Predict the 3D structure of the following.
Amino acid sequence: METPARLLLPQILPALLVGVGASLLFLGISALAEKFQHVLWHDLPDALGIGNYSSLWIIAMLTATGVAVGLVVWKAPGHAGPDPASEGLGGAPLAPAVVPGLLVASTLSLAGGVSLGPENPIIAANIALAYWLGRKAAPAVPGAAWVALASAATIGALFGTPVAAALVLSEALAGSRAADPSGTGSSARSPPPARAP
């Protein structure tokens, strides 16, 4: 029987790479949305001389944001992923072609003020990218491992604490042990990637 240290040691590099990548994607999208938000809600109304607290400006910006996000959802491959209102956090990996539309829709909605937060789209994008890149780089690693690493890394980045990431990863590992109590991996299967219509 292998010691826990021997089992965990080979997972350090993948966990580090997924953690850094997930954090960078979250920070990049957040920074881009924040800059775009400043343009939409401060620079543009100031340049037009109407002030950023005008009722007309607020209604116009929220409407324009809804139209822009709707166009992305309508026209982008995969329609910007599943509806976050009807899906939980995480889930099966999306096809890589869906990720750009998902991130554009997320950035627009964050900047325009019609989003409650980036959690669902950022987690979905990180899962899709980690799954796709991980399966290409290390096909021997189960797909579920890439999904768990991406979920944990993104939760840790979103909430700024490794404790949250550890809890998510522990839950994922406990779930995989419940599905395969023997620990052989015989019943563990990678979730199939969602396909863009």
Summary: The two ends are 46 Å apart (CA to CA).
